[in-house]
Prior knowledge:
Strand content of chain B: 15-25%
Number of domains of chain A: 5
Strand content of chain A: 15-25%
CATH superfamily of the domain at 114-275 in chain B: NADH-ubiquinone oxidoreductase 51kDa subunit
Helix content of chain B: 25-40%
Number of helices of chain B: 13
CATH topology of the largest domain in chain A: Ammonium transporter fold
CATH architecture of the domain at 114-275 in chain B: 3-Layer(aba) Sandwich
Oligomer: heterodimer
CATH architecture of the largest domain in chain A: Orthogonal Bundle
CATH topology of the domain at 114-275 in chain B: Rossmann fold
Number of helices of chain A: 22
Shape of chain B: globular
Order of helices and strands of chain B: HEEEEEEEEHHEHEHEHEHEEHEEHHHHH
Shape of chain A: globular
Distance between the termini of chain B: 49 Å
Number of strands of chain A: 15
Largest sheet of chain B: 5 strands, mixed
Strand order of the largest sheet of chain A: 5-6-7-8-9
Structural class of chain B: alpha/beta
Distance between the termini of chain A: 83 Å
CATH class of the domain at 114-275 in chain B: Alpha Beta
Structural class of chain A: alpha+beta
Amino acid sequence: MLKTGPYLRSSLTIEQVMVDVLIALIPALIAGVIFFGRQALWIVFLSTLTAILTGAVLLRAPFNLRGILGDGSAAVTGLLLGLILPSTAAWWVPVVGSFLAISLIKLAFGGLGYNIFNPALGARAILLLAFTSQLVKFAVPFDTITAATPLLSSRTFSWPLLWGNVGGSIGETSVIAILLGGFYLLYKGHINWRIPIGYVGSAFVLALLWGLDPWFTITTGGLLFAAVFMATDMVTSPVTFGGQLVFGVGCGILTIFIRQYTSFPEGVTFAVLIMNALAPLIESVTIPIPFGVGLARETRLKGIAAAGAALLVAVGALVWIDNTQPALTPILSHGQHLPIADWLGTSDFESLDFEGSRFYVTWNEEEKPAKAVYLAEQGGFNGPIRFLLVLDQEQNITDLRILDHREDPGLGELITKPEFLDQFVGKNKHNELALGEDIEAVSGATISSRSFTTGVKRALENFELAFFPQEEILEWADGTYFGSADSFGGKLEVEVSVSEGVIASVLVTGHSDTPGISDGAFEKIPERIVALGASKVDAVSGATVSSEAIMKAVQNALEKAGTPLSEGVMAYSIPPDGTYRGQGTGFGGELSLEAVVKEGRLAEIVIVESSETPAIADGALDQLLPAIIEAQGPVDAVSGATKTSGAVLEALDDALVKEEGQ
Amino acid sequence: MIGRTFPRGGGEIPHRKEATENKSIVVFGAPPEVVIPLKQHIGACCEPAVAVGDHVKMGQPIGEARQFVCTPVHASVSGEVIAVEERPLPDGGKSPAVVIKNDGNDQLYKEYKPRDYEEMSPEEIRRAVKEAGIVGMGGAGFPTHIKLDPPTVIDTVLINGAECEPYLTCDHRLMLERAPEMVEGLLAMIKASGAETGIICIEANKLDAVEVVRQAISGHDNLSVEVLQVRYPQGAEKQLIKAVLNREVPSGCLPCETCCIVQNVHTAIAVSEALKGKPSFERVVTVSGGAVLDPRNVLVRIGTPIEDLFNFCGGLIGEPAAIVAGGPMTGPPVAELGGPVIKCSSGFLALRENEVGFDQNRPCLRCSRCVEVCPMGLTPNLLGELSSKGYYRKAEQLGLLDCIECGLCSYTCPSKRSLVTWIKDGKAGLAKEKAS
């Protein structure tokens, strides 16, 4: 049999394509490792290795390097998956994910070229549904604490988003790194502009229509990463040009919809997967018109005009529907719209974030909350319980709702019933909210009831803290002290004089901040500090940096004045002698400990099980545990290991309080 | 990028013309024996006009055209007919052929007699072209006299000097060396077809030819030269017309639907020769490729065994990875080295392992590169897939029959899938299905 032509072939091979994609992912990987540390590298390594090995074993590849690496597509899938996982995930998450991606989503469908869904995203979807908590905790760059992805906290664009110096999945945060990779792939011709531009463009436009910050929308939640690396996956996107554009636009629209209306704040994963499923259909209706078949130009234009009009009508209708419910405020936690304005009686309210919680507030003349809606969260039996409180001027609870929870159906779930919740109405911070006294627990759901009650109590305390800060009178040794701190323009210096144990005056002696802008801070902050007698006061809006700097400098000065003689922290109510077990959620997962009570004192704390990073946690625990025992109560978290500290305290709480009630 | 081009698809491919583009055409006398197939063109086979034992002269008709789409063939040497039988064609097919033992005298059948086309009627020109047995010499082999008598009004005759196939340089050399003849042939064809203007279309990698041809057309206001961007397949008829005249040949139609005809450079020269009575029995072919010791452009008699042609160019180095008739993108493989050079043979290439690539049929990545490069706006991956699985009707709906088989999809494919082969098979399968 003679070999047929053409006899010239381009030098491009599947392997070359895969290697180029790997190269394009390097900037995102580097950014991820810079921001999230070695843990990120570890996750990506595990996912890539598992993907390669899974492919090699299932395809019974020859046992040599070339054979194991195969065409390189498994490595691409593994690397992609690693980059869309959070660095805080446990080690088995990338392993399970990559195994599923290669075995179930790729090879089971026929292998390279035949899979319907993007393997990395498919695997992520399974992980997201099966191990939600592993995928929604995101590390904050350069630190070991975790925070929600930016989509859950702030909603506006800021420059760190460009570099990627924000929380998120390993490879998804750095816009610059993703764009670098994208331009490389464009240059190499492995992707074209239609899908990424269609995706980002439609998301941008929809965000504008919805009144979201469009720049924020396209730079967060993995949207750009998906637009450049996921939606452009050749195998699972249409081959036709029109189809590619439709595909990209569809991804963008779905992403925004999912973010707005469902409980998945990033939206990207399911948007692309849904479009993957639609790709063959899209392709079949966008087959190009061949050369010379030329529908008359007018007919073609008419078709384009009709499609455009349909799209406009659809988007318009959605916007209209969305706007017919006035003053709805999108809530991030559950994608629901909550009638905040109805509860507050006005649409003229302000939203504030305080220590990870969100408040919607209207103000009275004294610039204190007249009415407030407070979104709070508390750990329940199976996971977080998210709820909201509506508070009046006296901080009485006028309404409360549970937004979502994971309590057991038929048991813990009963706390959502009005019979239980209504007990809280009219209560305020002065109520003990003791279970069995003020509040009847739901029978069969004691733990859920307790958790929720504790949550409400904490929320009330928090609210107090946020809006009515306690004026702590501290005492220092008399004298004049100098302190400094870094401010906007450079070093800022203060002179603090203490007389009769309280701050008598604060003088800013030197600064290089911009006159005019910072003046407010220089005028008001010293006054406030003196009035309050503490270094922590409200910042002057518009001059936050200078305000904070002054406070820090005062703090710095006061440190030299000796330790403040503060009141002792609340001690634990110690249960009868015995050993109590408790659990808390830390950085790496569950942490459990035993608290030994002897002679009415907390005598010893033994960590039974911990998945914390040893290097960080061990040192922290060495500090933390003795301190707790000494204080016989909660102490401040060890810096650098906030999450672990929190877990220990939570577990202690659990151990000592659980005993009391059950 | 200078020059016009076609709007959709296309791509850059290696030229590899260096080996022969600067070498003048050399004459390869005549072999001891020629095999002249009676079917060297699209259409019906000729009836043999001679019998074994007859003595024929050079230029004597040895096959008669009795059908409409048919054209006569002529003896390319003088000598004795030693066989009239089925012989292999270079592409693996078979055709009845007249085998002539060369007597070495090159005795002419009819003396050449220069005639001025201006004194001839269109009818006379077409008859001269038909009698000379001229077919499209670019590779297609469509009888030229039929093309010159189209059913529609023609305003333009295009000379296709794009020569976009790699390696091939015969048209390039002909334009450099025989431009005046080409211009005369073009003028004759303009007259024969009733057109007004003629445009000679040359890719921008042959600017020396552009210069020479510009000089050759001076004094003829109705002729012009169009420089085209170097882009494959610029020389495909439909793409050429789109690039030069911005007319789109409707699907399933001939170029005459757009009021123009396209002729090859060599065809134009053959027409000018036909005017003085010289039939089409020799042509210039490019013999090239890494496995050829001394690549050249050779003026060779029709019927010369390909083997002799390679030997004339120094012979083959080692075992070539592929031997191709025509360009490497569209040319068929040479099945039989003993097969003859025919009228539409533009080149013969013997390629080494390091300069060729073959089908590997790895899985389709759906990378859409084939869609991007297809000059006909098709989806080659889908056409190939459907054709290979026998869904010919479905493939037809997606434009199977519009494919010009330029090979660019297979060239570009990272999985080296045999897209063009499947599509060709699909066309054959569809024809069979329709016939039954």
